[in-house]
Amino acid sequence: MSATVTPLRVNEMPESHESAIAETKPVVQTAAAITPEAAPAPNRIREFSGAVLRAILPPALGLFLFIGLWALIAQDGRIPGPASTWSSAVELFADPFYDNGPNDMGIGWNILNSLQRVGIGFGMAALVGIPLGFIVGRFKFFADMTAPIISLLRPVSPLAWLPIGLLVFKSADPASIWVIFISSIWPMILNTAAGVRQVPQDYLNVARVLALPEIKIVTKILFPAVLPHILTGVRLAIGVAWLVIVAAEMLTGGVGIGFWVWDEWNNLNVEHIIIAIFVVGIVGLILEQALVLLAKRFSYGETH
Amino acid sequence: MEKYVELDRINVIFPTNKGPFQALKDISLSISQGEFVTLIGHSGCGKSTLLNVVAGLNMPSTGAALCAGREIPGPGPDRGVVFQNHSLLPWLTCFENVYLAVERVYGTKEGKPKLRKRTEEAIALVGLSHAAHKRPQEISGGMKQRVGIARALAMNPKVLLMDEPFGALDALTRAHLQDELMKIVVETKSTVVMVTHDVDEAVLLSDRIVMMTNGPSATIGDILTVDLPRPRNRLQLAENPHYHHLRGQVLEFLYQRQMRPAAAA
To answer: What is the ipTM metric for this complex?
Structure first.
């Protein structure tokens, strides 16, 4: 009988262990709270601070060297150094939301306007690109049909689309949104399609064996399986969109961070240009990190 | 007894870049209702292909495959499949994985409470009620495979098809699940076709063992009837001379009559 009993025990081991721990935990804590807790506490603090130091020290050193190099280059006086840029930034961010007419608005308004354009163009690209990616990934005929068009248009610089936008929409704002749309749609189509093609055959076999209707296949199997790929596409697209908006706004004008850079160049306010570079970088970083967090939330561990 | 699954002169030929590849040749097999049949053979002999023909995942190139008197048109929930790597959807809990199958089969006829009850019963049948709301990556390999069995059984299939269901498990867990499977099969009176490469598993579980020749053009080499009385107990069988005789016959088929070319060299 022992052989049939052993496997049972092996299988139930994790549970009995858990319950044993749960039962004994309070006892252990009350009995041993004073001695072992007191001893390793300094150790734990040292370990923790060591980890923090290891995490913070390299990037801090990098930034320090970067600023040092910048100050060194700024010595000859052609570009402003870190100190004057900092004081200029403090002044600028003291009142980010002032409004002295369309050509003189606070930095906050400029950032928000750019973000709005990116949001609209990017959102429309997602609405069109993700479903299109599903179709391209799911049906080989459609993939073969669109492949030449996509490979031809994808490497085109987004700004080359600007004149077409200006021609069709006869206005600067929709034209720059159009440029965002066209530049961020390709990563979304391609990543979604690649994701659909990479859905494990096992999952599709489950769908086939259950003879699930197409709508259930999409909602219960394809969409969750492809979601991490979609989010990768979205992340790449937002990076491109944020890169492109600065250039597009330089050309089209209006209120926006790109136009602001160009305006400050015309005013020869170089501190503001450097501040704009940091602002664009930081906003891009935040957008990217937000999507990384979102992607983490929807990534499922391998099940094998 | 009624012939439940009938395969009549099945040939399966896959088109490849190097021309057609004949995986299965001239296979005829009848399986009765309530029978437990295992397919055994060296790897690459097409036993999974044969199982997939019954599942409808592979279509025979020539010949007829029938289930309950009807030609098998393709995959369908009347033939529940337990996959080798369990194939649970990682974004659904165990309960939701089983519910997906239950909903597909009974969703048009029954209300939600009834569907939930069916799902709970299937999970209870494999002894996993306590883990029903865990995700597959939170449970062990043996538990995942049990959920896979629950999913297949919840559909109340005409035939339960199992493709090396315990192949990836350690020996102790495997033995435990084999014992559980025997109980479940008695309880549900299921007809089972199972692919295995484990001789002991085949003899312990089967009514008949279908021994396949090596591929390509694999076919049925021999069929061994396992006339050991049920319920079977692995410890009593260990001292049963007839068990050893049957086991010896399968081994003899696999290692003398169907010695793998690579192993023979």
So the answer is: 0.82
